[in-house]
Amino acid sequence: MTDREPRHRRRQFLRIAASGVALGLAGCSENGQPASTPNETETETPERTLTDAELRNAALGFTEQLAAGEYEAAREVFAPSVAEQVSAAALEATWADLQRANGPYVEIERTERVTVQSFAAVVVTVRFAQARQGLRLVFDDEGRVVGFQLVAPASAEWTPPSYVDQSAFETREVSVRGPGSCALPGELTVPGDGGPAPASFVLLGGSGPTDLNGTLGPNQPYRDLAYGLGTAGNASLRYTKRTAACEVDPATLTIDEEYTDDAVAAIEMLRSQDGADTDRTVVVGHSLGAKLAPRVAARTDGVAGVVMLAPPGRSLHELLVEQTRYLIELDGSVSDGEQARLDAVTAAADRVDRLDIDDDEVVLGAGQAYWESLQAYDAFETARSLDVPMLVCHGGRDYQVTTADIDAWRDALADDPNARFETYPDLNHLFLSGSGPASPAEYRTAGHVAEQVVADIDVWLEARWG
Fold first, then answer.
1. Would you list the domain boundaries of the chain?
2. For 173-313, where are the alpha helices, taking DSSP H only?
3. Rounded Cα distance, 189 and 238, in Å
4. CATH of span 166-316+358-465
5. Would you state the pLDDT for residue 41?
6. Is-catalytic flag, 301?
7. Rounded to whole angstroms, how far apart are CA atoms 322 and 324?
8. Which fold, 4-151?
9. Better-predicted residue by pLDDT, 425 or 340
10. What is d(CA 407, CA 421) in angstroms, rounded to the nearest whole number?
11. Order of strands, edge to edge, in the sheet holding 169-176?
């Protein structure tokens, strides 16, 4: 491996590394990240590859230091570029958030050696008084941590919701090939009755390195949705995003490289399937993917409809600040570490707003090219330019995309007779049911997309073509 390759690989994981602390807050990849910037340094090729036992011990040591309150010592396992972005105060706040959501720390249950995008990683399953939580540490070629994320415990398994009949459809593993040589793992769902060509949809995930199921903790909301609509006789294609499946450089990535180009390729692939009805293809997006759904529809001939699930109506960096503030104030108090984190995210968001980002710099998980392309995209105007039906769905307990965002969409589409809005008072950002103020703990509790959401989308499709 050349000197340039390790640096690129570290930049690739900078988004993951920087989002690890924020993920502890928000439980979802659309949340703020510390605002410092990495200093890339030349490194020599390691003399040997660390053994699995050494990687496990490093992950165990990091977790034990968090549990013991030794946050500064825990930072020593980080690669320099990550250590610059994740302070001891931020680690302290993250650990406090975990215990606030799951109860006091009890013990480390197990470790599991895994691979993430060709990088060695270890998942540490931690037991708290009220729940179990997985901590995934991703290591570079020198055995330093370049990624720190909250994930499902190793033993968590998805089970289908009660409204899914898996005998009603068939699934096939596929690969979506957009620009470049990297193939995106996907799954095609088609009705099993051999009847008329069904309506079909391509699903766009939320921001960050999202897999085809939208996996978050034990939940797989995109799989729920695809299988629920498959039970009702619809076809679908969902796929793992490029930022999760491929080596990408967050300093140069744009929204088209993250979303549009691959989505267009996915639509073409879906339409090429035997028996596909090319006149009944719908773009379904969730969160940031919902905001980009009109862009994908506008760049693809013949898209017949757009479904936006929790589409942001404000700038992403503005939402990051709001989400961070909401979460640190959720328990009625703000610690010094939490205030430091909010200040860092606010400062970073201000830099993004001004596009004050160097060419090779990553701020809030992305580089200047990404933020510039996102700011240049007018989602409202693009949606208004579409002459297709649009369905906008929102959970009333969503703290990541709030009523203010949906109101902005209502205003933007007020004169569009093709636009329909549905709100579900008890649902959160993943369209899972709950009560009281929403919190990250919900994402780590097994649930399913509410049946009413699936039914409403199916009814909307039926009204369009029934």
1. 4-151, 166-316+358-465
2. 221-231, 242-245, 255, 261-271, 288-298
3. 9
4. 3.40.50.1820
5. 31
6. no
7. 5
8. Nuclear Transport Factor 2; Chain: A, (3.10.450)
9. 425
10. 10
11. 169-176, 184-191, 235-239, 200-204, 281-286, 305-309, 390-395, 419-424
pLDDT at residue 106, rounded to an integer: 86
DSSP output for 78-95: B-HHHHTTS-HHHHHHHH
Give the tokens for residue 196: 């008329």
pLDDT score of 50 more than 90: no
Angle between helices 14-26 and 88-102 in degrees, nearest 10: 40
Query: Contact 59/124 with Cβ under 8 angstroms?
Result: yes
d(CA 368, CA 196): 47
> Looking at the predicted structure, is the pLDDT value of residue 193 above 80?
no
- The verdict on whether 200 is a catalytic residue reads no
pLDDT digit string, tens, across residues 104-148:
888 888 888 888 877 889 999 998 877 788 899 999 888 899 888
Catalytic pick among 287, 317, 439, 458 = 287
Q: What is the mean pLDDT of residues 354-372?
A: 93
Q: Which of 392, 254, 405, 421 is nearest to 322 (CA)?
A: 405
- Kindly state the tokens that stand for 301: 């001939």
**Structure-block tokens of residue 25:** 């807050």
Kindly state the tokens that stand for 401: 């995309």
Selected catalytic residue, list 224, 256, 398, 458: 398
398 is an active site residue: yes
Which of 286, 317, 429, 448 is flagged as catalytic? 429
